[in-house]
Design brief:
The chain contains four helices and twelve strands. The chain has 339 residues and is an alpha+beta fold.
């Protein structure tokens, strides 16, 4: 009986030693968390309605930066664009003719007006002289110093001079009225220019719309993850075409228990060991730690509830990021404080 108790005590002691050694090693070993690789997928979508003509890349294909990944039929928009461009061409011709007319009116109006004013002055001077001559002849006839014939001639010259002066005034008035014609021509020119600017704005808007029928990749090289649409299908605004992933825009996401918050800070250096590559560790760095807990129970009443809270963190991969595949799991080991 004593022998049995001795053996049992020995087994308990060995077990306690093993457990203690394991706990000691865990405390002495690096802190680590389970994580999984994620990437920021970008969904390329259609902004317009159109029949799909081409999808240039399939799943797994490498997509160069700014490459055209899909084309939609844009016949209707192209026809409207061509009509507006033709309208601009007609407007340019009309503007050219109107500008020439304004220049012609402006160049001849001033010269002709000056000439008409000079002619009016001459006509008025001749009429004044004829009026004085007529009055003098009348006085001479009354005294018998002149004849009736000379009086008639003076009266005829007076009437002719007055007629010429009136005609000169009419010509001046007509020429001055031409200034209003120039103003009207200038106004018509401004109207034509405004119409042309409106058509140009509509062309620019249509060109922007046409560009939306060509769907381009992001400004960085990516890889197609999912193909959502095929040629012949009808795309609507917001329809997904492709999802792509930047091979260098990936990270490892971990969840830090509330009890370990004191040990994890942004900037800490870590080592990442994926399940797909055991024994191979890649350097990383904690670049984000959430301010609010995740998976928090709705009602926290006990310490175990509080300890169940975790905080989402993102680990930046510092080497070989292109080899990491989203969805792969592994461990993230906290190594040292980065800053």
């Amino acid at each position: 009986m004593n022998r049995r108790r001795l053996v049992l005590a020995l087994l308990i002691a060995v077990t306690a030693f093993a457990v203690g050694a394991m706990l000691w090693r865990q405390r002495r070993g690096p802190v680590h968390y389970t994580g999984f690789v994620e990437g920021e997928e970008r969904i390329l979508r259609s902004e317009v309605t159109g029949r799909v003509l081409e999808v240039a890349f399939g799943e797994g294909d490498a997509v160069p930066a700014n490459a055209i990944v899909a084309r939609l039929a844009d016949d209707d928009v192209q026809s409207r664009l061509a009509a507006k461009r033709q309208q601009i061409a007609v407007a340019d011709a009309d503007i050219g003719r109107q500008e020439e007319q304004v220049r012609l009116l402006e160049s001849t109006w001033k010269t002709q007006l000056d000439a008409q004013h000079a002619e009016l002055r001459r006509a008025e001077a001749a009429a004044t002289l004829a009026t004085r001559t007529l009055a003098r002849e009348r006085a001479l006839v009354a005294t018998g110093a002149s004849t009736a014939q000379l009086l008639d001639e003076a009266r005829a010259a007076h009437d002719q001079a007055r007629s010429l002066a009136e005609r000169a005034r009419d010509l001046v008035a007509h020429q001055e009225a031409e200034e209003r014609r120039i103003a009207v021509a200038r106004h018509e020119l401004e109207v034509l220019r405004a119409q042309r600017e409106l058509a140009a704005a509509e062309v620019a808007e249509l060109e922007v719309t046409v560009a939306k029928y060509v769907i381009r990749a992001p400004a960085v090289a990516t890889t197609v993850q999912t193909k959502f649409i095929w040629p012949g299908e009808l795309a609507q605004p917001g329809s997904a075409v492709l999802s792509v992933l930047d091979p260098f825009d990936k990270y490892v996401q971990i969840y830090v228990p509330v009890a370990d918050l004191h040990a994890v800070r942004v900037g800490d250096r870590v080592e990442i060991e994926l399940d797909s590559a055991p024994g191979r560790r890649v350097p990383g760095e904690v670049e984000f730690l959430a301010d609010q807990a995740t998976f928090t129970p709705e009602k926290i009443e006990t310490r175990s509830d509080r300890m169940g809270q975790v905080y989402r963190a993102k680990v930046r991969i510092l080497d070989g990021v292109e080899r990491f595949r989203p969805g792969t799991e592994g461990n993230v080991y906290l190594v040292r404080r980065g800053r």
